[in-house]
Amino acid sequence: MIMKIFKTNIVLFLIIGLLGCSKSEKDELSPFIKINLPENHDNFTKGDLLTYDIEFTDDFQLHNFKINIHSSSLPILKSSNYLWDTTIVGSTEGIDLIIKHSLNIPLSIDTGTYLFIVYSSDKEGNENWVARDFTVHNN
From 128's CA, which of 31, 55, 62, 113 has a CA 20 to 30 Å away? Predict the structure, then answer.
């Protein structure tokens, strides 16, 4: 009888222990991206500095980011067909990152509207992106 009670208590203890264990949290949220600069619809002149200021955060762990700047115009609609297209990539760890940097806007690019697109992913593979547009004018 004592052995039966002992076995029952062990089984109950194991069941309660298994049910009481919390499952590890799963990362289902995409990283958050905040573009402080450039502002949407900013205007620049060829040769100006384009300063960008971006904040990345994630609830578990960031993995990488990509910044792409390219024309929003179709090349066949432009006369010189020299459209600025640049990509900056990086990897990171931790739950937050701030990037502040400046690029020279090339003198030889076509004027018009350009897109500033920022992508980010976390260690789990969740992805997010945010975009701004800006216009480049002649000197």
Answer: 113
Give the DSSP H or E segment for 45: strand 42-45
Alpha-carbon gap, residue 94 to 122, rounded angstroms: 10
Closest to 114 measured CA to CA, from 77, 76, 75, 85: 85
User: Using CA atoms in the order 98, 132, 89, 28, what is the torsion angle rounded to 10 degrees?
Assistant: 70
Q: How many CB atoms lie within 10 A of CB 22?
A: 5
pLDDT tens by residue, 72-126: 876 555 555 578 889 999 998 899 999 999 999 999 999 999 999 999 999 999 9
Q: Which H/E stretch holds residue 2?
A: helix 2-20
Reference 135, options 38, 34, 55; nearest CA is 38
Give SS3 for 69.
Answer: strand
The pTM assigned to this predicted structure is 0.77
Token pair recorded at residue 82: 């020299």
Q: What share of the chain is helix, strand, coil (3-state, %, to 5)?
A: 15, 50, 35
